[in-house]
Specification:
The protein is of the alpha/beta class. The protein has 24 helices and twelve strands. The strands form two sheets. Strands 5-12-11-6-10-7-9-8 form an eight-stranded mixed sheet, sandwiched between helices. Strands 2-3-1-4 form a four-stranded antiparallel sheet. Helix 8 (151-164) crosses helix 12 (297-320). The protein is rod-shaped, with a radius of gyration of 53 Å.
């Protein structure tokens, strides 16, 4: 419970009805919820704003949908198998770790999105000359080749190319999907297919170039081996001729050991040559050759990061210029990445060097052992040893030559076979309909979004609206019962009806509504209010009633007059007192406003006013306010006023006191504390919630008995029922008087 309400409940005076405070506590503790009914009521109240907002958003979306240029999309698919070998046939029996399939696929996607492939596609399709793709400035150059364009123009073409391109890996597959959008369907289809062709061609050319470099080096090594082998064969033939040595030496332990060392030396030399070849490739410093010759997952991942970072750098450089702060950060990242690639290449080179040195040392050790064994054999038979040495050189040379020739053939075949790890699944087909805009979806979203936004606008307007409009709001805020609601009458809002004439009350357009139009909704509202007052305590009904409001112009005087008339119609003796001495409204014509009234009763002259009866209702008397006094509050708070009110309550059945508004003046609070009951009047759509709560708290603290609230000037469809013309509320015929005809 808020602090004000809690203190009000704890510190109320004994005269204040406990039911009011119980209602305040119960309503305050009740949680506020936004139900569908409340939302519908908000929509009904803010229907114009809601529908206007929905119409604006829907028409905007519709205009965008029908004015947007259609976009066509070409879709192509590739299968990339990362499990196939990426070496050039030099691995031999080396068992390296398997390639990370996800990294390999990301690498290939980055290559597809590289500038190299994009520029080849732009050139092959002539998109830099196509008005459906290039802008007017680029076409004006009338370039015959991409090299004729400035770097800025080329970058602009690349940016548009990348904006139209989407490359992604279909989850849980090896299929890469390539999508290209364009306003021209031929461009969309041709670009998607050209990207596939250029990517496959680039992949093939890269592998062929790598294989060609390895083949050239192996060919040079084979020439050296062939020359050495030929020389060894000549020496062997000359030795056999000079020493008349025919056939082989007899088998023994020395010769067997010599044969074994011969085989090991041959293997060591072959291993050394292969590792020397890999070491020379590593020393070339070309990351692609190193990756192709020596599989390295870390190096491939670094290369992928480098390609991605270079693509981002190019896009940001083209979009924001060289001075963009993030470019310097990306340059630092590129430098660090290049350093990492260089470091990894150095690591690979070091490893290859270590393997080569190890193979060379192993070869040297085996050769040393072989030489020792050869000396032993030489001791046994100098001719046999010399023959074996020459024969070994010939055989090892032939074996090495055959091995290198086999590796050379394997390198060529393997490079051709491993290039087949990319296959075309689907080529792009000519689209039959555009993919953008999706009219049905956009219009549906526009309608739904418009209605939602309109409803949101209505709720926001309601949240800023601090006025009271419905009975539910009134009772939920004040925790006071609504005694009745009076419909809005256009005639009552006119300036000529704003003052009530007690001398001719029936001729007033405001006060006569409950007397003359017996079947009118306003008359029924005042009759209901009269019945509630009479039935609230049948044995001891409230005699002195004070009517007031929070602020001026809320209809308290109108309610006072019509309530007095309704009570008089029930046969009660009623006195209507205008206690609003600051701005009296219950008086005759303006020139008679200074006649004696309530204020003259307290004048020194002691001239008492004459109560003014109504000719049509003899049991209704009116006491005007009289001339405005200097201190109205002191007069109303005096003991003489209290005595006067007590005298009125004994003389009349009901005394209706019309007071000034509560918030601007203290007059109403003084009279409310002395009255039997207080009726608060609010104006629908005008009265402020905070002001009404403040009035309620002030009256309750003063000990006033608040009977309830009357909601005035209600513009609502709830007032839809009335009796047929010419009938009264009891179903009988209403014989109107001349005054009735005048008001009607």
């Amino acid at each position: 419970m808020p602090e004000d309400s809690e203190s009000l409940v704890k510190n109320h005076r004994p005269g204040t009805p406990a039911r009011v405070f119980a209602a305040i506590e119960r309503r305050t503790l009740a949680p506020q919820q936004l139900s569908l009914a409340e939302i519908w009521k908000t929509f009904a109240r803010r229907k114009l704003a809601t529908l206007s907002c929905a119409a604006i958003i829907f028409l905007s979306v519709a205009a965008y949908t029908f004015l947007k240029t259609p976009l066509y999309e070409g879709v192509a698919r590739l299968q990339i198998d990362p499990n196939l070998s990426s070496s050039l046939g030099l691995d031999g029996n080396d068992k390296s770790s398997p390639v990370d399939a996800d990294s390999r696929l990301k690498t290939e996607v980055a290559i597809i999105q590289s500038n190299t492939v994009a520029l080849h596609v732009l050139k092959s399709l002539g998109l830099f000359r196509n008005p459906h793709f290039a802008d007017a400035d680029t076409i004006k150059v009338n370039a015959k080749d991409l090299s004729d364009l400035t770097p800025a123009q080329r970058q602009k073409l690349l940016d548009k190319f990348y904006d139209s391109l989407t490359v992604k890996v279909i989850p849980n597959t090896q299929v890469v999907e390539i999508r290209f959008r364009s306003v021209e369907r031929t461009i969309a289809t041709g670009a998607a297919n050209s990207i596939i062709d250029e990517y496959i061609q680039r992949n093939f050319e890269t592998r062929v170039d790598s294989s060609k470099q390895v083949s050239q080096w192996l060919a040079m090594q084979m020439e050296d081996v062939k020359t050495n082998t030929t020389s060894a064969q000549q020496k062997l033939a000359e030795f056999q001729k000079e020493n008349n040595f025919l056939g082989d030496e007899s088998d023994n332990i020395v010769t067997d050991r010599l044969k074994q060392l011969n085989e090991e030396l041959t293997q060591a030399e072959a291993d050394r040559i292969v590792k020397e070849g890999r070491y020379r490739l590593a020393r070339s410093g070309n990351p692609e050759l190193i990756a192709s010759a020596v599989p390295n997952t870390t190096l491939q991942a670094l290369r992928t990061q480098e390609v991605d970072l270079q693509a981002q750098y190019a896009q940001l450089n083209a979009k924001f210029g060289a001075g963009y702060p993030k470019l310097r950060e990306m340059q630092s990242q590129l430098m660090r990445l290049n350093s990492a690639i260089a470091a990894e290449g150095a690591n690979v080179q070091t490893r290859m060097a270590n393997e080569y040195v190890g193979a060379e040392k192993a070869e040297a050790m085996i050769r040393g052992e072989f030489d020792k064994q050869k000396e032993e054999a030489y001791k046994l038979n100098a001719h046999t040893a010399q023959y074996q040495s020459l024969k070994h050189e010939v055989e090892s040379g032939q074996h090495l030559y055959d091995t290198l020739q086999l590796k050379l053939k394997e390198a060529g075949i393997t490079s051709g076979l491993t290039s087949a790890y990319v296959s075309v699944v689907d080529r792009a087909q000519m689209p039959d309909r555009p993919v953008e805009p999706r009219k049905a979806l956009y219009l549906a979203l526009g309608l739904g979004g418009g209605l939602f936004s309109g409803l949101l606008v209505g709720l926001i307007m309601d949240s800023f609206d601090d006025t009271i409009r419905t009975s539910e709001e009134l009772e939920a805020i004040t925790a006071l019962p609504e005694l009745g609601c009076v419909p809005f009458f256009t005639a009552l809002a006119r300036k000529k009806y704003r003052q009530l004439n007690p001398t001719n009350l029936l001729g007033s357009g405001v006060a006569s509504v409950s007397v003359l139009e017996l079947n009118a909704q306003g008359a029924e509202a005042y009759r209901s209010l009269c019945s509630l007052i009479l039935l609230s305590s049948p044995e001891n009904p409230a005699r002195v009633l004070v009517t007031s409001s929070a602020l001026p112009a809320e209809g308290k005087s109108t309610v006072s007059c019509n309530l007095a008339i309704a009570l008089a119609q029930h046969g009660r003796r009623v006195l209507l007192v205008d206690a609003d001495m600051r701005r009296p409204s219950i008086h005759g014509r303006p020139e008679t406003a200074d006649r004696p009234g309530l204020s003259t009763m307290f004048a020194k002259s002691g001239k008492y006013p004459v109560y003014q009866p109504i000719s049509d209702l003899p049991n209704l008397n009116v006491l005007p306010a009289g001339p405005p006094p200097a201190h109205p509050t002191q007069i109303l708070a005096s003991s003489e006023m209290q005595q006067l009110m007590e005298a009125w309550s004994k003389e009349y059945d009901h005394v209706i006191v019309d007071t000034p508004p509560v918030l601007p003046f203290a007059d109403a609070i003084v009279l409310a504390s002395r009255a039997d009951g207080v009726i608060l009047v609010t104006r629908s759509g005008v009265s402020n919630r905070k002001a009404l709560l403040r009035v309620r708290d002030l009256l309750l603290r003063s000990g006033a008995n608040i009977l309830g609230v009357v909601r005035n000037a209600v513009k609502h469809p709830e007032f839809h029922y009335s009796y047929p013309a010419g009938y009264n509320s009891t179903g009988g015929r209403n014989h109107s008087s001349p005054v009735d005809d005048k008001v009607a």
